[in-house]
Amino acid sequence: MAKKQIIPKKTPMPEQPPEERIHNYNEVPYGYIPEDAIAEAKRCLECAKPSCMAGCPVNINVPGFIKLVAEGDFRGAVNLIKETNALPAITGRVCPQETQCEGVCTLCKKFESVAIGRLERFVADWEAAQGELSIPELPPPTGKKVAVIGAGPAGLTVAADLARLGHYVTIFEALHEAGGVLVYGIPEFRLPKAIVKREVEYVCSLGAKLVKDFVVGCAATVDELLEEYDAVFLGTGAGLPWFLGIPGENLGGVYSANEYLTRANLMKAYRFPEYDTPIARGRRVVTIGGGNVAMDSARTALRLGAQESIIVYRRSRAEMPARAEEIHHAEQEGIQFNLLTGPVAFRGENGRVKEIECIKMELGEPDASGRRRPVPVKDSNFRIPIDIAIIAVGQSPSPLIPKTTPDLQLAKHGGVTVDPNTMKTSKKGVFAGGDVATGGATVILAMGQAKIASKAIDDYLRTGVW
Question: Does domain 18-129 bear CATH number 1.10.510.10?
Answer without folding.
Answer: no
